[in-house]
Structure prediction request, 286 residues.
Amino acid sequence: MSQSDYDRMAKAIAYIEDHQGEHPTLTEVSEAVGLSPSHFQRVFQRWAGLSPKRYLQVLALQRAKLQLRHQPLLEAAMETGLSSPGRLHDLFVTLDAVTPGEFKNQGRDLQVRYGMGETPFGSCLVAFCERGITNMHFSDFTNEEAQATLREDWPEADLISKPREAKKVLADMFDGGGEVRVFARGTNFQTQVWRALLRIPCGQITSYEDVAKAIGRPSAVRAVASAVGRNPIAFLIPCHRVLRKSGALGGYRWGLERKKAMLAWEFPENLEADAPLPTEQISLSI
Prediction:
């Protein structure tokens, strides 16, 4: 998907949610993003795998489940054998964390290749080394901005621009499935949190409180939220699946519209065809 198409979908999702009380029609939403109703419906369906109306139904259902859940999702996931690796459509993600010594040397003697590419969620900076993907950031970076961003995590690494290779990495990631390894630089606590995020099934959401309980630190909710916010590998380590306990989206370092778009894109992975839908919360009239 091109950046312009992603921008339209993100804008549409924002418009639908911002106007829930007004029950916007399909025509009104399509006009807000500059497309005809039929074209908008086709593009949204192709991108998200479900209609705009169905997206809102499922989003309301998922948030209701989060508020009503008696058993934390991550606890249930571990009991049912979903603990590792994390499933992302047909993509299996495994985390290789730096050792304490590697953390201290800040990437010295490490060769990190990087480049930009297009994804279903817009332009993305991806960086990788022999041990896996080290960074993913959603933004349209210049080369100087890309290097500055990567230096925050790998100050001493040898950074090498490889735009063609980066495009292939992203294409394989979103189109090819298979197994992907990520190599993350973080503290022991951050790594614990990121491993817990990989246990959240695709198409599901959980709360910061649930993540804190999952790592055995139920009173460390603020520290968990901070570690979630420091995730250096967008989407693959799915911090976008963590919401506030109330069901509110909370923050997202790559923008709340992108977080909404990611959740919409993943929902078809876990739709329950016979699940009752909270129709009083549906905001799109078609």
